[in-house]
Queue: 3 jobs
Job 1
Amino acid sequence: MVGRPASLSRPPAPARWRGRTLAAERHVREHQAFPNAEFPQPFGFLFSNHTMSFPRKFRSLIEASPDSVEAPDYVWLVYAVCACTPDACGWGGWMIEAAFKQSSVRHPTGTGDRLLSAVDEQRCPRCGRETYRTGVALRVEPSSDQTPVEVEGRDYDVAPIEYVD
């Protein structure tokens, strides 16, 4: 899988992290790092009482807990770059190549482990173009200490969630 352009089948969806887009997360970090700087505030809900609405039928998906989802035993990351076309943006960073769950049953994968569902479509997060997966790959295994390093209210905000029919 390494060293080939990724698929262009779907446009990237906005990433959500704890009820907020990653772009909003970066905005808050910039504002905290430079409190006297003038930053545009395109994410007004961060500084107001905005509520996020979701369809009620997806409540069990949205309110997932660590015990309700199948966690991988290991994940392969690959270093990808946005450099496939002359108008590419030049981004480079880590992307998921595959997530696996070990089992006693052999599965039809290169490792024999079961492939888990994960966002592995390598599209540039900056411009949406296809990326090139370099030969730099890294196998990552979960730590036994899963204590969050970020603190709600200090490092990020969480918008209240409501469910609608």
Note: The helical segments are 22-33, 59-62.
Job 2
Amino acid sequence: MSPGSGWRLLSDPRLVSLATQGLIVALTLFPAVAVARDLGPAGAGTYALGSRIAALTLSASSLSLAHGIAQVATNRGAERAGQAWASGLCMCIPQGILAIMLALVATKAASPHAPGEFTLLIVLAIPFQLATLVGAHVLRGSMYVAEFNVQRLLQAIVWAAAFGVSWLHGSKTLTDIGIAWLLTQIVTSLWVCWRVARKVGVHRPKFHGSLSFGLRAHLGIVSRDASSYLDQLLIGVVAGTSSLGLYVPASLLGSMVTLLANNMALTMQPQIGRAEPGQVRSTVARLLREGGIVTLPVALVLALSAQYLVPAIYGDMFVLSGKISAGLCLAAGFDAILVLSIAALLGLDAPGIATLVQLGTTIGVTLGYGFVVSEFGIAVLGWVAPVIFGLAAVGGLCSVAWTLRRASDDEAPSQQVLLVGEGVNE
């Protein structure tokens, strides 16, 4: 291998993003373990339920505008990306107010005993998260991979540092977590807005394009986010926060596989969107193949070691979590294939099909998890989850194959003639 080819490998956006994700996982593991060890299953469950509700209301109120902005940034150039970014910022205030109201009502209904200060602090961070989301997708769509990964890493560093200071020197309560989380989102959003303004400039808002794409993809993206949190929401509501506190550590190792897939999916959409005519099918096949080669072996290794790793990390109170975790890791491997399939569908400009695939998965998770937890408890989820997500992965791959058969390689999947250039922006 020549020095030039070695440097190209190290600067590959997927490899850079993967290394960034590894650091992020390491940084975010500390708060999760500290909460579980110090507060036990009940405290960890209350924290998890409140944060998941906030995340889901954030997704629901976003209108998936950020994904539409990424699509515009991929195909329309810097000025149009700047206009879409400005429109996204304008929407942050009304979207944030809506999300705060929804989150407060949902959290009070699902977890009436959660501390009021903790709930308020978590939901007040939502408008800043929306601003971060919009700016990050501008960077992603414009292939400013370094800036995009710095944003993700910065958020993890600030979160770990703020949590560490408040937890170690405070009273170790959920309110301390809320303060650290709000501070993290404020710092991250300010940094992202500054970097996007430097890269694409500040332009007059223009909603067309980004909003229409986002609305078409919104149901599928919300369904995707819902399926990521729906299992924990169902368990928290049906079985209680103590059961949720046992389930969250069980899902830890599997979530690493999902994060790995999400990381690879982040660059799939713009790579497929920029594919040369005649190369779309081969690009999709290559990216899916590479994603499977990376994620499936990791899922298998984690499944074999889960029952030993989880109690070693979280403590003896979480032995049951380790037994459940093995099956959840296998399910995460199938979920990774589903994540990559949906990213491929979005890159092929088929958000409607991606929505149907994800909606079917969400319905399957809702019915399957809801019945099993209510009738048998969380212990059998390790057997049920791989079946549900295995079927979902098959459906995702079949949908990609069907979309490719319908598409013509005579034009790019987004059917746009104005591209922003080749490669990664410096």
Note: Confidence is low (pLDDT under 50) at residues 1-10, 409-426.
Job 3
Amino acid sequence: MHRTIVAALALMSGCASSVYRVQTASFVPIPALPPPPSTRGDADLYLGDNTVAFMSRPNLAPNENAGLYLPRTQLDAAVSFHPGGSSTGGRLVYRHAFSGGAFEAAPTTLPNPNTDAFAPGLGLSLHADLGADGQFGLDVIADLMLASIPSFVRVTCVEGACTPGEIVDEHTQRDEVFLASGAVFMTYTWNQRSRIFVALAFQNHPTNIGDFETIDRTPEVEPDEGPVNFLVGAGADIVLTDWLSLVPQIQTSVTARPVRYGPIFGIGLRGTFGATPAQEPAAPANAPAPVMPLTPVVVTPLSVVPPPPPVPVIIVPPPGEPPPPAVFVYPPQ
């Protein structure tokens, strides 16, 4: 039916026209949880691979006409600023999809564009403590990136003045599309060295029209922003040192347009600047004061020294006189 419409347009043009088949393969980044925010220190640097392991191979959803290559390795980076532990902060974000090892979302005869896709951008984060003890928290982030996406385009003659089956054009091009993402993180701080989180996120998925026919020998083809995808995920922030933490996470897509994804495991590292040394949380304000242990006092008993015994004084009487009574002299103490 589509070919009939294209042929009718060729006849209406009043000249000998041809029908061409246009095939496109675009290398696009996959939707991923944004780099999770942090509340430690004045700033932090996050670098993570959110495609460490695919639990199932992604594939094109039914009834989707898209020609897509997907990255086997995709890195996310973010520099976040929250001076003085501020609840609101800005961030610089960057996503890089490596073309090496890329795989097609659906069988295709087109090659991988064989060049990387990347997306720099800006973002904002907001943090709020839930409860008096601050163990539960809520983080909301929003990022906007401009993605540079490579595509391989092939134009083949179908019928008309050209030779059917002839490849009339092949080229690689690069186009820019916006990537908008947002996420809500619910966090629980187990102690100062471990925090777990669950997240709900959204991000648009770039796509294209993978195969169509036209009477234009040099058609304009480019990817577009694509539909919004929703993701759920969970992870942890494990403090290794006062300035370095490990961030493992797992995510899966709730929606499946244009690609169906299973669970994907990722891992990242975060360096924190201006962080206070990790320590156990302080006791609540209404907690009883700690009881200080009493130091035993050793009392030395007084020693009583008995007085020295009296010293007898012997007086020798003159000859012929009786001896005098005995005299005892007490020495001074």
Note: The chain is about 5% helix and 50% strand.
